[in-house]
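Example protein
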Amino acid sequence: MNAKQRLSNWIHKTAELCQPEKIIYWHGTDQEYHELLEEMVKDKKAIRLNQELRPGCFLFRSDPDDVARVENRTFISTTLQRDAGPTNNWISPKVLKPKMLKLYKGSMKGRTMYVIPYSMGPIGSKFSKIGVELTDSPYVTVHMHIMTRTGDKVYDLINQGQDFVKCLHSVGYPLENNQHDVSWPSAPIEQKYIAHFPEENMIWSYGSGYGGNALLGKKCFALRIASYQARNEGWLAEHMLILKLTSPDNKVRYVTGAFPSACGKTNLAMINPSLPGWKAETLGDDIAWLRFTKEGYLRAINPENGFFGVAPGTSYATNPNAMKTIQHDTLFTNVALTDEGDVWWNDMTPEPPSHLIDWLGNDWTPSCSEPAAHPNSRFTSPITNNPITAEEFEDPDGVPISAILFGGRRPNTIPLIHQSFSFQHGVFLGSIMGSEITKAVISSEYGRVRRDPFAMLPFIGYNIGDYVKHWLAIGRMGDPEKLPKIFYINWFKKENGKYLWPGFGENSRILKWVLDRCDNLVDATVSPIGYLPKMEDLDRNSLNITEENFNKLFLIDKSLWSQEIDLIEEHYKIYGDSLPKEMRDELDGLEKRLLLQ
């Protein structure tokens, strides 16, 4: 059976199972997109914003119980539990499929089933993969239209025989006998399932309409399924930004960066360099797929076509390019509504408006104890809206990567920047990355380091030990002279509760040193943890920071690193017997070097 027949049969069988009222095949046109948005406004499922202030923009409000990814209801369903590994929730396909098929039966009654063909990456690129999502959610449909490349060109690839990932989604809210619909249909938490069947190239999602659970091209395909495909095919699917940097002498370099949540990944992807003559352009803020070329270089594409960004904390002070991006043709979810028909969220402006309609649809004033916008409220915007999107974004061959950045939010221990001794040592740095929990997040765990290896802990589609082994195998596949250099960054070191490093545009100073190291233009100081910058090699012209504080940013405290080794030992226990020997060797090497310091 060819791909076209498989698609037709699958759609037919799904329709028989889910029983939608009608089926709409999505062709990827702007006319379809705008007509569906108008329909949602008419059905009171979307709010049209003030078109003079934000042309082409709309606001959605979710059910209060459906506001984020549901990790405890997210599963990797493989034949053997070992293949899912210790960091994933696992259920056997023999158990999970009957449960979900029972839920899917009649789940689309009274609704439209949208058939959305989409490409992750430029259509037709050898880097790209394609999928088809069947969904009964118009919210998902318009968001997939922004976040992926949808439409007839993908149908053409399927007709030519290209395989595709089968993605089935239902909000789990059938309408019986002309039952009145709600503005945000979803199912109770115990019925929510976000299930991945990597051995079958398939994703099933039920019960949630939220982006990370329902936009199946995003984390589900682009990371969980793609990481499994990448392991089998010899490439990398990573939770990484891609940034283009051009020096004053017009030399172009590209870097990727993986950081846990709340560590400034989107801000770095849209950085405005403070260094004179430097230029930064965005290729992606969230996901990178990396493959070797015949020339032996790792090249990367961003498989997505838009931004699905966290709104709170985004402002002209923190990320002016993001603010320009969302000025038009953007969809907002769970932000506040101003009296003028515009949007607002926490820290968007120095002072909040005197009156808002909050994300729950209630009146809000600054005296209210709860935030006006949900902490995980979102904006969804085409990447072409970004004023600094790089022209190479649509390059089917991707861009050559010079450096890979890892990092986390650590108030102490980790210096501002250090470089790995080797690619293997860089894999070690990626395997131990994490952020320290603050009182604002989980007070009972204040001060604990939450490890998030490669910023991929929730997104690895198979055994974490095999994932690290795959990174090591990638290092062995490449010419050491052509492999990207690996660095570890920590913008968040503190002294007496205050950040020592100003961050934002000043981060360009560190990026310059990274590129200088990639080009072998500067030497470095050998430390127990890696290569540190020589102070004279960092551009500090007009930098508003004292010499004392600058030196503290690079301090290696032996006692803190001794504690860090104990924390890494504890973290490595989750791997069980799947921890690669090379990681144990790197940890032992770190301990020995610290003893000799």
User: Anything to note?
Assistant: The mean pLDDT is 95. Residues 336-373 form one domain.
